[in-house]
């Protein structure tokens, strides 16, 4: 009774927060509940039955195994519960999705009681989450002559688990809710500082937008009970920024429908929209839940009589409204005509949201069911020795005679699975591809583990070369929330087969290295496909896609991903980079020059950026590829020269060896295998057998952008432009300004050097600047705090070996101590240098932030409202993004420097330099 009484106490505690009982995943608690159900005189029996039926987490959780076992007893008549008949027990099993429930259903279907076997078989025919152990049992039974097994296989071969589902309704009535004007970050839907609660879906749902917005959504639902609420980003893109399944989960929790009456707080099928559509990563996540994402295009550029775009005094295109989607507008989505209507008036074609594949996701309640269903149909057809019956929409295959391949097209063709043999595929083709590297990060990892449990996966796919679970997003503060969540996550992922930042057994020291940096190191083949649980999964080797926690789970479980081959935009460079500029300025200039070249249109959005940075090693090139998430690109590919790629692979090998030396490799020696892959790749490059990846000369691009280095004359800053009169222009990454714009007078309250956008060279720049300032002025004095968070421990170790860390220690007022990590977040800053633990730190904003209302100068990628710094009533917080030297000098001065001050401060310092071709200035 102690376990159950503790649960009752937790229920009472949750009531004070307006929450329902937490879903049960504990085997011990559910066993206690079952004991009470079996005791007809137990005072808690009625509640226990309700908890058992409606409040138990399905999939492969410990509780699911106990539930499935008890339901089996009921079906076989070994236990009698009047409230749960054998037929109802089978229905409950059908909603448990996989794992223990499939094992029980197979036990029943292949058992001796023919009546029970037939009933269980009918339930099995509706299930798709079967793994090798399950299909092996079916195959063996079929080969031994079991007719029930044959019946099930015939059904699978016909894909009746899909064909017998209800068709998608023709008309979907929606009522609009404008969640915000301008780009809507996933931070608005699932704030980073609430990351600790993501696995508690009901609790986390309370952080969606604001309590006021939640009340408004409920009011709309009360006024329109027959309609779905459609969440809208007016004059912007929905779901930019982080790749958050939790954001989609929250939207679905408030506006979607229940996935099952017997599974608590898991909703599906949200409907979201944006004037400029949906961010690519967010749209993938919407597909996971069987939802709908619309590109409204309800504001367009105003033109004159000659068709020329009209612009305001700032040179920005003037927008005019084509049709209104103001909150409370009733619209109709027609899935047959694929149009959006207001009454009888047609507003816009929305066919992109209703491709044959997306229609399947909607019908099946999500993309997972389709992925697993296709595999199941293939297995059944092969076992029966018959051809696959065309059931699912054929993959679109685009092949253009005489047209070469871009780099991403080459990678997709190499890794394609199930496409027409020998057919060369171009952009627009729908492709299943094998995934080489997978990454899970710590604030979405708990959700990834839940997704793996829900799809009944227990071990990583053998075709994945390597996978890593990070600890970087919770590195800053080892608080009670982290202590409760992270060890549990690490154990799950370690058991599943991933290399984990923390060892559940405590045999090696915890690493908090930034996930993107680790993935960049363990990617040892530029032909690789990488999937990672973070929008900044943007490697400078291979092609990497930031993904929601569910897509990460799918990649871990199956070793595959499905997506169209994206279009590419080619980025090349001309001219010479000035000695006093840093490569980060080139990155910002790329965004700025691209927008000018295309009249304000972001041609990068939703596409691959193929950037020709051949002379930069992977560490330095990562500064560019990492930023492409903020350019709203789907992904990026770095075209490297042979010698540079070899150098990058040698660096990666060394870092992987360090992980091995620390004891991080697992039983399958995954890390050792990655070194072998790297050695093979180096040998193939050196022999000329397979040079570094390059596109074909006759490849076709959506656009080509040439960046002129000669006109990049001063440091460039990405400004959130928090006071822009046009709300939609605030907090985008498109406002890129030269340093001189600020006139050397803008107050800077805090500086941040760190996270994934810096490499070892940036920390060496910091070290050199501090020494120079000391020599010039006799002391180093900060007029604003400077927070420094190295991306990895390797960088710290290398800086120690080279003498730079000693310099940083000399001028610091705080240095992290892994033996005594901070237990609470810092709430105030002194005007000193803080040497923080490797990890995300301020960039993530979930543990520590700058003081409210601060103006922050940062090397980070994040300038979204409330991310790095929150607002006060009197002043908006703002996070300006710039190069390391600009950040450092701003904290020394307490303001933005003038260009003259900047040039003087960096004189003689080796900044991160880049030159096209072989003109790189060696550091």
UniProtKB/TrEMBL annotation:
Gene3D superfamilies: Aconitase, Domain 2, Aconitase, domain 3, Aconitase, domain 4, Aconitate B, HEAT-like domain. Residues 179-405 form the Aconitase B swivel domain. GO terms for molecular function: 2-methylisocitrate dehydratase activity; 4 iron, 4 sulfur cluster binding; aconitate hydratase activity; metal ion binding. Residues 6-162 form the Aconitase B HEAT-like domain. GO terms for biological process: propionate catabolic process, 2-methylcitrate cycle; tricarboxylic acid cycle. It holds the Pfam family Aconitase. Its EC number is 4.2.1.3, 4.2.1.99. GO terms for cellular component: cytosol. Keywords: Iron, Iron-sulfur, Lyase, Metal-binding. Residues 409-894 form the Aconitase/3-isopropylmalate dehydratase large subunit alpha/beta/alpha domain. NCBIfam families: PRK09238.1. This is Bifunctional aconitate hydratase 2/2-methylisocitrate dehydratase.
């Amino acid at each position: 009774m102690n376990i159950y009484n503790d649960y009752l106490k937790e229920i009472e505690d949750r009531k004070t927060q307006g929450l329902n009982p937490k879903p049960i995943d504990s085997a011990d608690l559910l066993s206690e509940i079952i004991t009470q159900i079996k005791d007809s005189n137990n005072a808690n029996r009625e509640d226990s039955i309700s908890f058992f039926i409606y409040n138990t987490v399905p999939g492969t959780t410990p509780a699911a195994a106990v539930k499935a076992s008890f339901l089996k007893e009921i079906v076989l008549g070994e236990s009698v519960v009047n409230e749960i008949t054998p037929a109802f027990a089978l229905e409950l099993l059908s909603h448990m999705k996989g794992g223990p429930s499939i094992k029980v259903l197979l036990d029943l279907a292949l058992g001796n009681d023919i009546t029970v076997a037939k009933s269980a078989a009918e339930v099995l025919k509706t299930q798709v989450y079967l793994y090798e152990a399950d299909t092996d049992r079916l195959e063996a039974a079929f080969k031994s002559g079991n007719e029930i097994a044959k019946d099930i296989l015939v059904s699978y071969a016909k894909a009746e688990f899909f064909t017998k589902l209800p068709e998608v309704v023709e008309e979907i009535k929606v009522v609009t809710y404008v969640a915000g004007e301008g780009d809507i970050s996933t931070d608005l839907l699932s704030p980073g500082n609430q990351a600790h609660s993501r696995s508690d879906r009901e609790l986390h749902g309370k952080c969606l937008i604001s309590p006021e917005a939640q009340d408004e959504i409920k009011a709309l639902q009360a006024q329109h009970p027959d309609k779905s609420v459609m969440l809208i980003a007016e004059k912007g893109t929905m779901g930019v920024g982080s790749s958050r399944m939790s954001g989609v989960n929250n939207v679905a929790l408030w506006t979607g429908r229940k996935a099952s009456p017997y599974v608590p707080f898991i909703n599906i099928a949200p409907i979201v929209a944006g004037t400029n559509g949906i961010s690519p990563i967010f749209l993938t996540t919407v597909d996971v839940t069987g939802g709908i994402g619309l590109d409204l295009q309800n504001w367009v550029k105003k033109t004159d009589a000659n068709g020329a775009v009209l612009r305001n005094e700032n040179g920005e295109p003037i927008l005019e409204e084509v049709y209104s989607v103001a909150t409370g507008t009733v619209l109709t989505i027609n899935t047959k005509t694929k149009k959006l209507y207001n009454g009888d008036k047609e507003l816009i074609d929305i066919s992109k949201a209703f491709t044959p594949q997306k229609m399947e996701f909607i019908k099946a309640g999500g993309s997972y069911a389709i992925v697993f269903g296709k595999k199941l149909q293939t297995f059944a057809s092969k076992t029966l020795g018959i051809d696959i019956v065309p059931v699912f929409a054929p993959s679109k295959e685009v092949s253009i005679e005489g047209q070469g391949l871009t780099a991403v097209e080459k990678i997709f063709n190499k890794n394609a699975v199930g496409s027409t043999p020998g057919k060369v595929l171009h952009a627009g083709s729908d492709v299943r591809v094998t995934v080489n590297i997978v990454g899970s990060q710590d604030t979405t990892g708990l959700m990834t583990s839940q997704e793996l449990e829900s799809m009944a996966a227990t071990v990583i796919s053998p075709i994945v070369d390597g996978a890593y679970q990070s600890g970087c997003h919770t590195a800053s503060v080892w608080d009670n929330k982290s202590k409760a969540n992270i060890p549990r996550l690490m154990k799950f992922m370690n058991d599943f087969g991933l290399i984990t930042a923390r060892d559940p057994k405590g045999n090696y020291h915890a690493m908090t290295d930034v996930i993107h940096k680790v993935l960049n190191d363990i990617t040892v083949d530029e032909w690789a496909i990488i999937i990672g649980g973070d929008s900044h999964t943007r490697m400078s080797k291979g092609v990497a896609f930031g993904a929601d926690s569910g897509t990460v789970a799918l990649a871990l479980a199956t070793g595959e991903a499905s997506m169209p081959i994206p279009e590419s935009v080619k980025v090349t460079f001309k001219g010479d980079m000035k000695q006093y500029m840093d490569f980060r300025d080139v990155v910002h200039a790329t965004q700025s020059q691209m927008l000018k070249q295309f009249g304000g249109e972001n041609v990068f959005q939703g596409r691959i950026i193929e950037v020709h940075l051949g002379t930069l090693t992977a560490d330095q090139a990562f500064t560019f590829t990492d930023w492409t998430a903020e350019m709203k690109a789907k992904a990026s590919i770095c075209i490297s020269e042979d010698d540079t790629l070899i150098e990058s692979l040698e660096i990666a090998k060394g870092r992987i060896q360090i992980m091995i030396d620390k004891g991080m490799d697992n039983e399958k020696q995954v890390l050792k295998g990655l070194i072998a892959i790297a050695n093979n790749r180096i040998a193939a490059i050196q022999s000329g057998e397979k040079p570094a990846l390059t596109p074909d000369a006759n490849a076709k691009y959506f656009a080509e952008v040439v960046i002129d280095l000669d006109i990049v004359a001063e440091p460039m800053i990405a400004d959130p432009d928090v006071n822009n009169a046009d709300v939609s222009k605030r907090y985008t990454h498109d406002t890129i300004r030269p340093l001189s714009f600020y006139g050397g007078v803008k107050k800077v309250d805090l500086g941040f050097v760190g996270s994934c956008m810096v490499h070892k060279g940036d920390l060496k720049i910091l070290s050199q600047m501090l020494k120079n300032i000391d020599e010039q002025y006799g002391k180093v004095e900060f007029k604003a705090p400077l927070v420094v968070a190295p991306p990895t421990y390797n960088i710290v170790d290398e800086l120690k070996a080279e003498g730079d860390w000693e310099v940083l220690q000399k001028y610091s007022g705080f240095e992290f101590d892994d033996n005594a990590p901070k237990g609470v977040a810092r709430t105030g800053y002194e005007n000193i240098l803080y040497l923080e633990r490797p990890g995300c730190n301020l960039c993530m904003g979930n543990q520590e932030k700058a003081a409210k209302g601060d103006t922050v100068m940062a090397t980070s990628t994040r300038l979204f409202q409330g991310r790095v710094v929150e607002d006060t009533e009197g002043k908006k917080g703002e996070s300006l993004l710039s190069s390391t030297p600009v950040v450092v000098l701003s904290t020394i001065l307490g303001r933005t420097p003038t260009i003259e001050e900047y040039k003087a401060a960096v004189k003689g310092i080796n900044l991160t330099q880049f030159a096209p071709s072989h003109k790189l200035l060696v550091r």
